[in-house]
Structures are given as structure tokens and as C-alpha cells.
Amino acid sequence: MATDAQLDAIRAELNIDLTNSLNREMETRSEVLRTELNELRQSLRMNISQEVEEEEEDNMDILIDSHMRDITADPRPQMSGAGLSANNKHFKDLSNHELNRIKKIHEKDHQIEPKTILNETLGEIMNKLVNFLTFSFDGYTKALYEAEIMEDVYDDKSMYESIKVHLIALTLFVRDDENILYIGILLVFLSIIIYLVNITTS
Fold first, then answer.
1. What is the pLDDT of residues 142-162, one digit of tens each?
2. How far is CA 193 from the centre of its chain?
3. Contacts (Cβ under 8 Å, ≥6 apart) of 147
């Protein structure tokens, strides 16, 4: 006959086993429910996105057809006409959504106008010229350090290595940003001053 202490121990073990098995069962069921919920969400999202794309495609058919008519009707030679013409074999493989994206990219590229010095005012040009004069030594010093690193030559330099490093630094400095433009403006000012001095002395 088992004593009361042994029965209590057996009951405790059975309780622990039952609670563990119940917890495991609940965890597996909750994981199954989570996966099923995720699958339902994904399928709902896919259905909604497909419906939206179908509506967009239906609405954009008219726009794309009109755009294609504009491109094919234009007698001028165009890169866009060659890329989107109906004779292109790749054109048939594109969906309406892709054609609409191509059209938007094409329009966006043509809307952006590159900004040059001709678009700036004289005050902005003079301000940038003064900034160039102020910070040109720092820019040249940085280019000189870059040239030394490129050539792996630092303190003890021969005459040839020094000239070579300075020429590379000058090339890097001129190539950086709009430095060549402002060097040209400075040379124009310098030539005007030399011309005026030449006139006054002769």
C-alpha cells in the first residue's frame, strides 16, 4: 500500500505533466491560429492590391493610348518614340501599369531643367566667387593631401615627386565642384585689369 506522501507526490507529478501538456497544446494551437491569421491577412492584401491595380489599369488604358498616339503622331525623331513604339517587340510584353510608370518617369525627366550659371543672378555668382577665393587654399590643401596619398609620397620628396604631386593636386582641385568655372572668371577679371593697366601706361 502506498503512503499518503507517495500519493501526494504522484498527484503533483500528474498535475505538472497535465499542465505542461496543456500548455504545449495551447502553444501549438495559438501558433496554428497565428499562421492562419497571417495567411488570411496576406490573401486579403493581395486581393485588395489586385483590385486596385485592375482599377488603375482600366483607368490608365485611355491615358496610355493617348500618350502612344501623341508619340507616334510626332514626326520628329525621338528616343522615347523608339522605346515605346508599337513596332517594338518588347512593347507587347509590358503591362499597362509598367507603361504608365515609363510615362511618368519620362515626364519627370523632362520637367527637371539642369541649373547652370546662366540661371543664377550676378549677386549669387559674386558671392560664390568670394567664397571660392576664401576657401580655395583649404580646397587646394585637401587636394594636395589626396595627391600625396595617391602617390604614397609624404615628407621627403624629390623635385620630380614634388612637381608631380602638385600637378595632380591642381588637377583634383580644378575638377572638384565648380572650381574651374570660378578660376575662369578670375582669369577674365585678371585679363581686364592687365588690359586697363596696359592702356593707362602706354
1. 999 888 888 888 777 888 888
2. 45
3. 165, 166, 168, 169, 172
Find the helix packing angle between 179-201 and 122-151, rounded to 10°: 110
Closest to 159 in 3D by CA, of 167, 125, 50 = 167
Instruction: Please list, in sequence order, all residues whose beta carbon lies within 8 angstroms of the beta carbon of residue 183, skipping any fewer than 6 positions away.
Output: 174
Q: What is the DSSP string of 37-91?
A: HHHHHHHHHHHHHHHHHHHHHHHHHHHHHHHHHHHHH--S--HHHHHH-TT-TTG
Mean pLDDT score of the chain, rounded to an integer? 77
Cβ atoms < 10 Å from Cβ of 84: 21
Mean pLDDT of the region 184-199: 92
Under 8 Å between Cβ of 155 and 146? no
Task: Specify the long-range contacts of residues 47-55, CB closer than 8 Å, at least 24 apart.
Answer: 53/97
- Ranges of beta strands (E only) in the chain are none
